[in-house]
Design a protein that fits this description.
Blueprint: H1 2-18, H2 21-37, H3 42-52, E1 57-59, H4 65-71, E2 78-85, E3 90-92, H5 105-114, E4 122-126, H6 134-147, E5 155-159, H7 162-170, E6 174-178, H8 189-203, E7 210-214, H9 218-221, E8 231-236, H10 241-246, H11 251-255, E9 259-264
Parallel strand pairs: 1-9, 2-4, 4-5, 5-6, 6-7, 7-8, 8-9
Antiparallel strand pairs: 2-3
Helix pairs in contact: 1-2
Length: 272
């Protein structure tokens, strides 16, 4: 801890000495980012997390029970990827298909039951939701939750298929439209206007409670005319919680009351 403090003083002192007004600010921010990005010893990070980690900072890509177990006492909520297998009436807890047997979402629910967690905060990124599998996947998820006595009230279902999300919302889940990745910098104004109008139209549909997006699109999302009751969910998945919490350029995410969840990076020992 003492070494880290000394390093901080050296970095910030150097910036203050050599920087002019604007340059100093930029260098100061870069220095802070570099400082916060360091992998701190677990005891130090844990100490800081207990004092400063916001409740709406959830862990990104929790795709194994091992990773869940490592961070269960640190984060208030967890994002998990899921892929539906209609022929098996089962979900794989993976970003891409790997092994349903090895990485079944059911394993995570078993973990919650074993630890007497009945109302977990979950963000389920539904990778392959379609009109064809919507009803079957909803029934399967409902059955899984009932079997392990898990409440659905704090479970978000995310998908780009906003039409099919309506079924999940009606069933009592919170739903979020996944805003796709667009190369906005290389698009014409006409193309950007089309995206803007489409997103605003989706935002007013009855099937979603939120729009979820990579933090790089925050400024674009901010230009949209959105319903007042629509929530925003975002991810800064290349940054750890300290970078998001303390770095000045990320303050806008913390000050926006519409943002209910921010996903952050914490790979730990079992990232996949």
């Amino acid at each position: 801890m003492k070494k880290l403090f000394i390093l901080s003083v050296i970095i910030l002192g150097t910036i203050a000495y050599y920087g002019g007004a604007q340059t100093q600010t930029n260098l100061f921010n870069k220095g802070l980012n570099r400082l916060y990005s360091y992998n701190l010893p677990a005891p130090i990070d844990s100490f800081l997390a207990k004092k400063f980690l916001p409740q709406n900072f959830w862990l990104h890509r929790t795709n194994s029970t091992a990773k869940l177990d490592q961070f269960i006492d640190k984060y208030n909520g967890f994002e998990m990827d899921m892929i539906y297998y209609p022929e098996n009436h089962a979900f794989e807890n993976s970003h891409d298909e790997v092994s349903l047997e090895k990485y079944s979402l059911e394993n995570q629910l078993i973990y919650f039951k074993q630890h007497n967690i009945t109302t977990p905060n979950l963000w389920l990124d539904f990778k392959n939701l379609t009109t064809a599998n919507a009803l079957s996947s909803l029934n399967t998820l409902n059955t899984l939750l009932n079997n392990y006595h898990i409440n659905k009230q704090n479970i978000w279902i995310e998908s780009s298929n906003f039409q099919s999300l309506a079924l999940f919302k009606k069933a009592g889940y919170k739903t979020s439209y996944y805003f796709p990745y667009y190369d906005l910098k290389n698009m014409s104004s006409t193309e950007i206007t089309t995206i803007k109008e489409r997103t605003e139209q989706i935002a007013t549909s009855s099937g979603i409670n939120a729009i979820s997006f990579d933090g790089i699109y925050y400024d674009f999302i901010n230009t949209l005319t959105l319903p007042q009751n629509l929530s925003l969910l975002t991810w800064l998945h290349t940054k750890n919680w300290r970078q998001v919490f303390w770095a000045p350029e990320n303050k806008k995410f913390l000050l926006d009351d519409r943002i209910k969840i921010i996903l952050v990076k914490d790979k730990g020992k079992f990232n996949r």
